[in-house]
Amino acid sequence: MRWIGFLIALMCSLAFAQPAPRGETPAATTQASGARFTSVDVYVDAKASALGAYQVEFAIESGKALVVGLAAGEHPALAKAPPYYDPAALLPGHERLIFAAFSTDASLPRGRTRVASIQLMVEGEAAPQYAAKLVVAADEAGKAIAGATVSLSQGVQR
Amino acid sequence: MRVLLRWGGGAAAAAAAILLVALRLMPDRPVFHPQARVTILDAFSLARQLKAGGKIDKSWDVNGDGAIDQADVDAIAQRAVALPKGGTP
Questions:
Q1: A contact residues 67-126, partner B, Cβ 8 Å cutoff
Q2: What residues of B are in contact with residue A86 (Cβ under 8 Å)?
Q3: Residue B1, CA distances (Å) to A21, B6, B39 in order
Q4: Rounded alpha-carbon distances, angstroms, from residue A32 to A24, A36, A64, A93, A128
Q5: Strand order in the sheet with A64-71
Q6: Taking CB atoms and an 8 Å cutoff, what residues of chain B touch A56?
Q7: Of B41, B83, B89, the CB nearest to A138
Q8: Distances (CA, A) of B65 to A54, B41, B52, B61, B70
Q9: What ipTM score was computed for the predicted complex, to two decimals?
């Protein structure tokens, strides 16, 4: 009699068991189905020059992401207000953001400095790929800085 | 009289030449070209002119309100970062 009860319990557990999708854990599925937020820091390297103004074009090259915010840079000259940008870039369907800032302060950043932080909402499993192009970087007199570069640093999840 | 005229003419010619050279060497007032591609450097140029406090060319009155001020700087900067309308987002 005890054996019959054990067999019934074993058959029930096998009948109702659901195999987990290959390569996924329930926790990972939950994370993938929901949106998450990340931040991409944008750096401009003005080399030896003082950075008076810059304009950057940012693009979401692949993956599903939406720009939801833009924060100012780290140097006091660029930290007073967020960069100029087109609010339309924050609407769904846009994968490009042009932003720019300048400062007439006497003290300006030199070398590599964080000029902005882009907040993004990411959906899906694939990690989005981003690209940035330095449209222009100029010194305190508005003269283009030769050899200035832009770079991105991402991965801060909040 | 002839000597006076000769010297006077020479002095006038020299003064005119100095004036021409001075005008040539003086930096032109920046002018805003709305038809050209606008970048943040245009807004930066106007901001620096406003800070310097000199006479500013009327072409910088982009919002057409009769005053050249921070509102024009902002308007130019917004134009620089505007996404193309009707094109690829």
A1: 83-86, 88-89, 93-96, 98-102, 104
A2: 78, 81-83
A3: 112, 9, 61
A4: 10, 9, 12, 20, 13
A5: A64-71, A110-123, A36-50, A149-157
A6: none
A7: B41
A8: 28, 22, 21, 7, 12
A9: 0.76
The pLDDT tens digits for B23-49 are 555 556 899 988 889 999 999 999 999
Q: What is the largest CA-CA distance in chain A?
A: 95
Interface of A with B in 27-56 (CB under 8 A): 52-55
Average pLDDT of chain A is 83
* Residues 29-58, chain B, touching A (beta carbon < 8 A): 39-41, 43-45, 47-48, 51
User: Which pLDDT score, from 0 to 100, does residue A152 have?
Assistant: 98
Q: Which of A37, A68, A59 has the alpha carbon at shortest distance from A150?
A: A59
